[in-house]
Amino acid sequence: MDIILLERVEKLGQMGEVVSVKPGFARNYLLPQKKALRATKSNLEQFETQRVQLEAENLERKSEAEKVAEKIDGLKVIIIRQAGESGQLYGSVSNRDIAEAVAEAGFTIDRKQVTMTAVIKTLGMHNVKVVLHPEVSVEVTANVARSAEEAETQAETGAAFNAAELRDAEDAAVAQEIAAEAAESRAEAEAEAEAQAPAEEEDEAKA
Q: Which residue ranges does the record annotate as region Disordered (predicted)?
């Protein structure tokens, strides 16, 4: 199906271009979202009549989006979720959850502006693309953790908080400490025995 793009569509074309797409993509996405018109003769004539106005409106929206982008790009939001020791979530984090977290940070966006190839199912730092305008996008980081404390640890290390690994590390540290104390005790005992040996030999010689 041939369509006229009413705005830039990634990997497809710029505003005003006539491109061919699959009918389903046009009917289910481009046309309902008002991102395109069917490339009929009347629509082409209508677009040319309104081109200057549409381009002016697009530039205005782009300018506004760029102002917001300066504030939101690189934003880090914390999302608290329950998860197992391996870091697997009991559920998931969707584009709606990201949009709500960004809104709580003071920037209102629509969930449709959050681009995700799949929902988030693990703890950790996840970079997510937010499209503010067809020509302006930013990246925000979703810090998915079980608690604010774990989120802080993840933010500092850049890695997911793994309770099992932490426990193993703590156990290993304790075992190492016990081994060091045992080695120190043995060394002290050996030193004391060596110090007593000459005195015993001297007492035997006097006898």
A: 172-207
Residue 142 falls inside a structural domain: yes
Cβ atoms of residues 22 and 52 within 8 Å: no
Determine whether 93 is exposed, middle or buried from the number of CB atoms within 10 Å of its CB (0-12, 13-18, 19+).
Answer: buried
| CB-CB contact of 114 with 84 (8 Å) | no
Of 9, 7, 41, which Cα lies nearest the Cα of 25? 9
Range of the domain at 87: 76-161
Tokens describing residue 18:
């006539």
Residue 197 pLDDT more than 80? no
- Range with lowest mean pLDDT among 7-16, 55-64, 151-160, 170-179: 170-179
Stretch 141-154: mean pLDDT, rounded?
A: 93
What is the pTM (predicted TM-score) of this model? 0.68
φ/ψ of residue 11, rounded to 5: 65, 15
| CA of residue 49 relative to chain centroid, distance | 44
CATH number, domain at 16?
A: 3.40.5.10
The CATH number that applies at residue 102 is: 3.10.430.100
Cα separation of 122 and 85, whole Å?
11
36-38 β-sheet, strand order: 18-20, 2-5, 36-38
